[in-house]
Amino acid sequence: MATGPMDLGPTSRAVADNLRRLREARGLSLRALSADLKRRGHSLSADALNKIENGRTPEAGAEPPKNVRRIDVDDLTALAAALGVNPNALLLPHQGSGSISLTGAGTVDATFVWAWAEGRRPLTVPEGDDGTANADFQRYARPLGIRSYDRSPASRAAHVEDSGGRGYYRRGEDGKVYEVSTGEPVEVDQHGNHDD
């Protein structure tokens, strides 16, 4: 990997900041985290972890470290599993308010960024949108069975289309799932998907 100064974007810096924060919060040394990753079938040496952490946001006036390593998505996923967090906890700055610098999107309100990363809403919504932005986001970002539509006409139409024309469901007092408009019971699997 790179041994000279590396130009890192805001997401790479957030990962480096969060990796150090979470590793220390878990009381893990670089070697201990490396050993845990190896037990999980993913090799990342203590030196590689140190180089990833070297990409942290530099303190004011400090010179950035020279030995920096980028992280790939397999590393990110393995680290999130080893640290007991979701990948977003590594990817995004650890802040719930204010603005976040996001690679490819610029500066965005932190609450929007987290909702987007959690699959709850699109990152941006065009002015005057009739709900189509959220309906499209849910359809393309999340698999059937875990989409979260709002009450807009566009979302209702997408939900009906997803459900094979059946519409909305409710769970009855007996624990069974029923289609709201017909009152008919619906068979669902353990993931909440229905059979059509």
The total of beta strands comes to 5
Uncertain residue ranges: none
**Helix share bin:** 25-40%
Q: Number of helix segments?
A: 8
How far apart lie the N and C ends?
Answer: 51 Å
State the gist of this model.
The chain is mainly alpha-helical and 196 residues long. The chain has 8 helices and 5 strands, in the order H-H-H-H-H-E-E-H-H-H-E-E-E. The strands form 2 sheets. The chain has a 3-stranded antiparallel sheet, with no helix packed on it.
What layout of secondary structure does this protein have?
Layout: H1 10-25, H2 30-39, H3 46-53, H4 73-83, H5 87-91, E1 99-102, E2 106-109, H6 110-117, H7 132-141, H8 153-162, E3 169-171, E4 177-179, E5 185-186
Antiparallel strand pairs: 1-2, 3-4, 4-5
Helix pairs in contact: 2-3, 7-8
Question: What do you see in this structure?
Answer:
Helix content is 40%, strand content 8%. The protein is mainly alpha-helical and 196 residues long. A hairpin with a 5-residue loop joins strand 4 (177-179) and strand 5 (185-186). It is elongated and about 65 Å long. The chain starts with 9 loop residues before the first helix and ends in a 10-residue tail after the last strand. The model has no long low-confidence stretch (mean pLDDT 88).
